[in-house]
Design brief:
The protein has one helix and four strands; from the N terminus they run E-H-E-E-E. It is an alpha+beta fold. The mean pLDDT is 77. Pfam families: OKR_DC_1_C. It is an enzyme of class 4 (lyase). It comes from Escherichia coli.
Length: 69
Amino acid sequence: MLCVVPGEIWGGAVLRYFSALEEGINLLPGFAPELQGVYIEEHDGRKQVWCYVIKPRDAQSILLKGEKL
């Protein structure tokens, strides 16, 4: 189970984990993790995991070196 909490700041390992989870959903038929706070849509035959976010005013300062929004 994965929960997305309002106000959470994602970056680094957490963002890569979320991307890997989305990849697993597409690679493994029937894999349907319980994702609280997110929704799944299909585009061009590929499932994409989405959530609503609020971008802070100074978003660049919370990113790790080399990461981009």
